[in-house]
Design a protein that fits this description.
This is Mid2 domain-containing protein. Keywords: Membrane, Signal, Transmembrane, Transmembrane helix. The chain has two domains: 223 residues, no CATH class; 71 residues. Helix content is 27%, strand content 12%. The protein has a four-stranded antiparallel β-sheet with strand order 7-6-5-12. Strand 9 and strand 10 form a beta hairpin.
Length: 311
């Protein structure tokens, strides 16, 4: 059985007097209960107990704190140790003491696939959707949405594992809200779900006790488009930032290039101006020559004359 339980509740008016009388009929805790299954020996429905309100050989089964009804449905009415967080007013098709589910007492709705545990989404006016189909959008509470009417008069029989009637109020009048992914525009505009009466799950009389602690829930407000507006604002700021940053960057690069060119020209001019000038003699403006070369030349001349005289 699935552990997640959506906030699905049904409205029912339960007579405290009728429930007190029904609570005196205790189910046999030793009889096993089964889920609908293709297995030859069936699939055990752990935590479920037979109603046996009228001593039938085959009986529907409900969980502790759930009230058995004569049309094979169970309704959560009393918190228990096994179900401390029970959703008051939740409705489901119960389990059955027949392993092969070959008896009318077992019920004939929501038997296959994700619906085998019998959880129901109450649409109002005695109409339902199997919870598995409701959560995937295969069944809706709209007209022609695949919802169905449960047959048979519902008479409260017993509250499983409750010897005294502790439930004297009535469940919150809240019907199933469509899953968010399948919610229509019209249903999103509603702030609270419609209050309806579960006509078949009633007994004679009225209750004068106070309601349980549970209260009507409001449907979720439609998701706003604030995220989209914020995204547009961010894009606009980015465009403005780029429009300012790009021209500033271009101007800065142009100034840097001009400065580098000017600096390079100045460095080149300073190197040309620092070249050494030719040396001049102290007398007049005649350039000075290397005296060593002149002296060597004179020695050569003297040697030549001396050699010629000897010959």
């Amino acid at each position: 059985m699935r552990t997640s339980t959506p906030q699905i509740r049904a409205f029912a008016l339960i007579s405290a007097t009728s429930l007190w009388a029904a609570a005196g009929v205790l189910a046999d805790p030793n009889a096993p209960c089964y889920w609908p299954s293709t297995e030859p020996d069936g699939e055990f429905a752990l935590g479920y107990f037979p109603c046996h309100a009228f001593g039938k050989e085959v009986s529907s089964c409900c969980a502790p704190g759930w009230t058995c009804f004569s049309n094979s449905l169970c309704m959560a009415t009393t918190p228990s140790r096994s179900w401390p967080n029970i959703t008051i007013g939740a409705v489901q098709r119960g389990a059955c003491t027949a392993p092969k589910w070959d008896n009318n007492a077992c019920g004939s709705i929501c038997l296959t696939g994700d619906n085998y545990d019998g959880k129901l989404a109450y649409c109002g006016n005695n109409r339902y959707c199997c919870m598995g189909d409701f959560e995937t959008g295969k069944c809706t509470c709209e007209e022609g949405g695949g919802n169905f009417e449960q047959d048979g008069e519902a008479i409260a029989q017993t509250i499983i594992q409750v010897t005294d009637t502790t439930f004297t109020g009535r469940p919150s009048p809240t019907t199933a809200a469509p899953p968010a992914s399948f919610r229509s525009t019209e249903s999103e505009s509603a702030t609270t779900s419609t209050s309806t009466t579960l006509s078949t799950l009633v007994t004679s009389g009225s209750s004068s006790s106070t309601d349980p602690t549970s209260s009507p829930t409001s449907t979720a407000e439609p998701a706003s488009d604030g995220g989209e507006e914020e995204d547009k604002s961010r894009k606009k700021k980015l465009v403005i930032s780029l429009a300012v940053a790009i021209p500033v960057g271009v101007i800065a690069i142009a100034f840097l290039a001009a400065w580098l060119i000017t600096k390079r020209r100045r460095d080149k001019a300073s190197k040309i101006g620092a070249a050494p000038e030719p040396e001049h003699s102290a007398v007049g403006n005649e350039p000075s020559y290397d005296m060593g070369l002149a002296e060597n030349h004179q020695n050569g001349v003297n040697f030549g004359q001396h050699y010629y005289q000897q010959k």
